[in-house]
């Protein structure tokens, strides 16, 4: 199978999963929270082991402490996913708002460039989105992680399909160039 076909298949699958996730964003939010919990629990266990095997007393205490905290966070997210959804949605909302504020500041610093308005509009949109989420938090929060995942899967699928098309056309152009140079 050619490389571009593999990327095309991955892009189509990503698009399909994106649509599937957006069809039920609450279930996707629960799944994201459980996966985050498993990841934190595994990282916490590894960190605790690394801290336990450290030679320096301070490294041992810090490693064990951080490992236990991560392990507890992971277990909490796994076994209480609805509360975890609210916590992760809060963090995501804060990050969206802070990212928007940083883009507004960056846009203001770029006021003499052609990128001033796009940066300013982009930052304002993120700040407004964070404000909308906060204003309707308990209505939006259960779906937020699923929606973000679904949109990311759609964008990822579109990007992979574009990459596949590029690889196919670049491969054809390279083949034509080689044939004209060396003849067949």
Oligomer: single chain
Beta-strand content bin: under 5%
Number of helices: 6
Give the overall silhouette.
extended
Let me know the average pLDDT.
Answer: 93
Instruction: Please count the beta strands (DSSP E, at least 2 residues each).
Output: 0
Low-confidence parts: none
Class derived from helix and strand content:
mainly alpha
SSE arrangement, N to C? HHHHHH
Question: Helicity level, as a percent range?
Answer: over 70%
Largest sheet: none
| First-residue to last-residue Cα separation | 23 Å
Radius of gyration: 23 Å
In short:
This protein has helices spanning 3-23, 25-53, 57-79, 81-109, 116-135, 137-182.
List keywords for this structure.
184 residues, mainly alpha, 6 helices, 91% helix, 0% strand
Please tell me about this protein's structure.
With 184 residues, this protein is mainly α. It is built from 6 helices and no strands. The protein has helices spanning 3-23, 25-53, 57-79, 81-109, 116-135, 137-182. Helix 2 crosses helix 6. The longest helix has 46 residues, at 137-182. The mean pLDDT is 93.
Write the layout of secondary structure elements.
Blueprint: H1 3-23, H2 25-53, H3 57-79, H4 81-109, H5 116-135, H6 137-182
Helix pairs in contact: 1-6, 2-3, 2-4, 2-6, 3-4, 4-5, 4-6, 5-6
